[in-house]
Amino acid sequence: MSKKRIVFLIFAILWMILIFYFSAQTAEESTGQSDSVSYMIGSIIYKDFNTWPDLRKAEFADSLSSFVRKAAHMTEYGILAALWYNAIGTVWIAFVITVAYAATDEFHQLFVEGRTGKVGDVLIDAGGALIACAIILIVRHLIKRNLPKGER
Question: Strand, helix or coil at 123?
Answer without folding.
Answer: helix
